[in-house]
Design goal:
Blueprint (H helix, E strand, L loop, with lengths): L6 E7 L6 H9 L6 E8 L5 H5 L8 E6 L4 H11 L4 E4 L5 E2 L3 H9 L7 E10 L2 E4 L10 H7 L7 E4 H6 L10 H10 L4 E13 L6 H14 L3 H6 L2 H21 L3 H14 L7 H11 L1
Parallel strand pairs: 1-2, 1-4, 2-3, 6-9
Antiparallel strand pairs: 4-8, 5-9, 6-7, 6-8
Helix pairs in contact: 5-7, 7-8, 8-10, 10-11, 11-12
């Protein structure tokens, strides 16, 4: 009888033939060996399968093909097929460092609780690497901590029992991970592992109005939960929207969409009234008029 792996690693992939091999190999190179890898191909139309095929000789690696339903659905498919005690995630353009699963096992193996765990990452943007600062919750509630700290999906490990109950919301395509973490941490503790265990590769694609709009919509859903609003300060909630509206106004002005830029400015002023006393505000007004 095949022994249950301690970890299931889920990689959703869509047209990432150029990076998927590196992600797979980073799992194979782990210093802890009790794992299975589930690759969920979300309807790729490039040669992703051709690249993945040679790795399928490793009996720990499974490949699932589905029609394109976006990454939340792909991850949920992986969760449905997972047999590991804990489930981890890896994006197809990121990598685990060799210590990743070992560090989680060392921390989780002695835990008596069903938990949500996180580690930290190196972030590579335009060839420049920055390392996350390690931070701990202190007296913060886990929900407050998660919303005050950048937590990448590849640095999260969650007990399978939790993910059989809580899934990614397939109706949202941005901040879907934050939405899931918040729902989980309303009921479960967080375990913070003070190690750098992954490399996150951020593509610089420029701002897009529709992306910011989708993020705003996702945040509205997250913060509509009364439990969340009781735990999180209004200032922290507002900071999520202020940041996105700032980017949205700039992007719409660049695109010449003055009417939409003005609408976003009104919404921003409603959240942050003090903006009307800032130089930036009058710069936007000038661009709207001229």
């Amino acid at each position: 009888m095949k022994q249950r792996p301690f970890f299931t690693v889920i990689i959703p992939v869509y047209n990432r033939a150029g990076t998927i091999a590196r992600a797979i190999e980073s799992v194979q190179q782990q210093q802890f060996s009790s794992w299975e890898l589930i690759i969920v191909d979300d309807g790729s139309v490039d040669n992703t399968l051709e690249v993945v095929a040679p790795y399928l000789s490793d009996e720990r690696i499974n490949y699932i093909d589905q029609e394109n339903k976006e990454r939340s659905a792909a991850r949920n498919k992986g969760i449905e097929n997972a047999t590991g005690e804990y489930i981890c995630f890896l994006d197809s353009d990121d990598v685990y460092y060799p210590n990743h699963l070992r560090e989680f096992h060392n921390a989780l193996g002695s835990s008596q609780q069903v938990v949500f765990a996180r580690s930290f990452a190196d972030i590579v943007l335009n060839g420049k690497k920055n390392t996350q600062d390690v931070n701990f919750p202190g007296k913060l509630h886990p929900v407050n901590y998660i919303l005050s700290s950048v937590i990448y999906l590849c640095n999260v490990c969650i007990h399978a029992d939790i993910l059989k109950k809580h899934k990614f919301n397939e109706a949202i395509s941005y901040a879907e991970d934050t939405d899931l973490w918040v729902r989980i941490l309303l009921d479960h503790p967080i375990l913070v592992i003070n190690k750098i265990t992954t490399q996150i590769n951020v593509a610089s694609t420029g701002s897009k109005s529709e992306i910011h709009e989708k993020y705003i919509s996702s945040f509205q859903l997250i913060f509509s939960n009364p439990q969340v609003r009781r735990l999180v300060s209004t200032a922290l909630i507002n900071s999520y929207f202020v940041r996105r509206y700032n980017w949205l106004i700039e992007e719409r002005l660049l695109q010449g969409e003055k009417g939409k830029a003005f609408s976003s400015l009104i919404k921003l002023a409603g959240i942050q009234p003090a903006i009307i006393f800032k130089k930036q505000f009058y710069g936007w007004i000038y661009k709207l008029i001229f």
